[in-house]
Amino acid sequence: MKGTVINNLKLIKVIDGDTIKVLLENEQESIRFVCLDTEESQHGGDKPVTNAGILASKWAQNYFG
User: Fold this and answer.
1) Who contacts 36 (Cβ-Cβ below 8 Å, separation ≥6)?
2) In what order do the strands lie in the sheet with 27-32?
3) pLDDT value at 8 more than 80
4) Considering the domain boundaries, does residue 4 fall inside one?
5) Which of 1, 3, 31, 36 is the most buried (most CB within 10 A)?
6) Which three-class secondary structure string do you get for the chain?
7) Above 70 in pLDDT, residue 1?
8) Strands 27-32 and 10-16
9) How many domains does the chain have?
10) Residue 5 lies in a domain
11) What range does the domain containing 24 cover?
């Protein structure tokens, strides 16, 4: 199985365990991973921040960053 490949994609920021911000054709875009829903890792939403969310965010930073 092969996923979508996008060339010239630059990682700007890992938002949390299931969302990243990238630069694509000089535009900032958010990418949310389908079929992946992690708990929250940042305050500001309507859901509480959890340890699992923080760990998922750290994993994503290590993987993508």
Assistant:
1) 17, 18
2) 10-16, 19-24, 27-32
3) yes
4) no
5) 31
6) CCCCCCCCCEEEEEEECCEEEEEECCEEEEEECCCCCCCECCCCCCCCECHHHHHHHHHHHHHHC
7) no
8) unpaired
9) 1
10) no
11) 10-64
Q: The whole model's pTM is what?
A: 0.71
- Residue reference for tokens 């630059």: 10
Interval 29-41 mean pLDDT = 83
Domain assignment present for 38: yes
What is the pLDDT, as a whole number, of residue 64?
81
Any idea which residue has 């054709």 for tokens? Answer: 25
Q: Would 2 be classed as within a structural domain?
A: no
Give percent above pLDDT 90 in the chain. 18
Residue 58 CB burial class (10 angstroms; 0-12, 13-18, ≥19): middle
Do residues 56 and 38 lie in contact, with contact meaning Cβ atoms separated by under 8 Å? yes
Q: How many residues does the chain have?
A: 65
